[in-house]
C-alpha cells in the first residue's frame, strides 16, 4: 500500500499538507521566519505517534469492554543538540480518567499498541529510545 501527501507553499514558512483524508498547516516558529499558523514538522511527528497509539488504545478498550471516562496521551521527547536534530529519547504517558478501572485490560490495550499494532511507535524505535508510562486519575 502506498500513501501520498502533497505539501504546498503558502508564503514565508507556511505550508499546507494535503492527504486524501484532510489537511494540516505547517509553519515555523516566529524566530525562524514563521507566523505560528501551524504545527512544526517535529511536533507533527510526535502528534502522529500519539494519534496512532491513541486510536489503537481506543479501539482495544472498546473491544475489551474496559471503557474509561476519558484518556489523554502526553509525549515528552528529547531533541538532540547537533544538526540534524532528532528525538533520541521519547516518553509516552497514557493518562486514564475515571473510576473502577479495569487496569489489567487497560494495560493490555496499551501494551498491544506499543508492542504490536502502532507502526509509528515502531518507526520511532529505529532512531530513539522509547519508554511508556500509565497513570490513572480517579474522578
TrEMBL record:
InterPro entries: KH_dom-like_a/b (IPR015946), OsmC/Ohr_fam (IPR003718), OsmC/Ohrsf (IPR036102). Pfam families: OsmC. Signal peptide: none annotated. It comes from the Bacteria. SUPFAM superfamilies: OsmC-like (SSF82784). This is Putative redox protein.
Amino acid at each position: 500500500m502506498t500513501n501520498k501527501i502533497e505539501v504546498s507553499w503558502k508564503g514565508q514558512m507556511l505550508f499546507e499538507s494535503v492527504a486524501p483524508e484532510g489537511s494540516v498547516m505547517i509553519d515555523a516558529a516566529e524566530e525562524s521566519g514563521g507566523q505560528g499558523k501551524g504545527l512544526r514538522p517535529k511536533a507533527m511527528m510526535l502528534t502522529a505517534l500519539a494519534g496512532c497509539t491513541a486510536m489503537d488504545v481506543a479501539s482495544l478498550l472498546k473491544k475489551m469492554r474496559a471503557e474509561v471516562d476519558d484518556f489523554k496521551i502526553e509525549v515528552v521527547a528529547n531533541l538532540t543538540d547537533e544538526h540534524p536534530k532528532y528525538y533520541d529519547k521519547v516518553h509516552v504517558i497514557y493518562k486514564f480518567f475515571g473510576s473502577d478501572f479495569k487496569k489489567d485490560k487497560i494495560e493490555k490495550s496499551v501494551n498491544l499498541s506499543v508492542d504490536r499494532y502502532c507502526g509509528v511507535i515502531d518507526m520511532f524505535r529505529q532512531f530513539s529510545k522509547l519508554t511508556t508510562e500509565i497513570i490513572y486519575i480517579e474522578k
